[in-house]
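Thread: Newbie trying to understand structure tokens

Hi all, I'm a second-year student working on a class project, and my supervisor (Dr. K.) asked me to get a predicted structure for one chain before our next meeting. I've only ever worked with sequences, so writing a 3D structure as a token string is new to me. If someone could post the tokens and maybe explain what I'm looking at, I'd be very grateful. Here's the chain:
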Amino acid sequence: MDTQSLHLEERFKRIYLENKDRLYHFVKRYTKDPLIVEDLVQECFIKVWDNLLSLKDDAMIYPLLRTYVYRIVVNHNQKEARRLLRDAAFNEKQPLSVSFEEDLLFKDGWRSFHEVINTLPEKRRKIFLLKQQHGYTHQEIADQLKVSVKAIEKHLSLANQVLREKFVADKLVVVLILLSMQAEFM
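---
Reply by user tm_fold:
Sure, no problem. This is what the structure looks like when written as tokens:
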């Protein structure tokens, strides 16, 4: 083994040991299953290993790792939500056996979701619905409302922040609702 390979392995090991616990706890906020958390953190470190030569400042690596792992978590949750929607669509064709409690939970989550959306300022609500319900791009919304793309991004960010605050314990319900809104209007 040459010295550069040895240096890379030592560097990776140091990055891993310094950041694995922090990333684990960060991911745990979004996914409660410890096995999935471990898999997602592992996936992040695989990405780090693949890009190790291009990473320059180890002192500032944690924000980059959080960005990596956040994207990995979002992608995982989107795949899971799509799988759940596919299963739901399949089950729609089959005799459905949803418990009263599950049905009530979803309807209550949907009602709560609409209540929160209705509390948004009018322009923010309109932008949010154009994006989520109708699937418009940021540019299309900006053109339609005659505002900048940055303004659209800011409104969507603030709307999502309100949703995260209101539904912190029910993340899957929000994801399913958003995906079902997009599916309805496609």
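A couple of things are worth pointing out once you decode it. The radius of gyration is 20 Å. DSSP finds eight helices and no strands in the chain. Feel free to ask follow-ups in this thread.
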